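Can you make up a protein sequence with its C-alpha cells?

===
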Amino acid sequence: MVARLHSVAFCGIEAIEVEVEVDVARRGFSGTILVGLPDAAVKESIERVRSALDNSGYEFPRHKAVINLAPADVRKEGPAFDLAIALGVLLADGALVADEPEKYLAIGELALDGRVRPVTGSHTKTSSPGRKGAPSRMNSVSVRTSRAMAVLAPMLMLSSSMPSK
C-alpha cells in the first residue's frame, strides 16, 4: 500500500509543497530507499524515524520500504520531513489508519525517543497563503513543542491506539 502525505521544502524564502510517498513491500528483501534529491540530513531521517518508532512502541517495517519526496527536482534539506516520513511509514505498513492524510502538511523533527521537535520556520511555512502548489483545502499541522505529539493524532484523525511495550 502506498501512503501519501505532504510536507514543505524551502527554496530560499519560498515554501514548496512536497508530497511524501511511502510504499512498504509485503515481501522481498529488507532495506529502505529514500529518493527525491534529499541532502544528508534528510537521508539521516531514516535512522531517526526507525529509532523514534521503535522507542514509541511501533515496529519499523522489516521489508523493503521506498520513500519518495516529490517533486524530485527540488533539493530537500533538513530534518523537517521526519514526521511526514514516520507517519507515512506507519500508514503504509497498516499500523495507523487516517482519513485523507494527503490533506495535511506534516512538519517536524523526531527525537530518537519519539518526541517531536519544533522546526525553525515551520509556522511561516505552513501559514503562507501562497504556498506553491498547495491546494486550498489543505490543513496545516506544524509541531512547535516537544509535547505536541499528544495533540497531533487527533488533528490527523488517526484511528489507531499506541501499542503497549
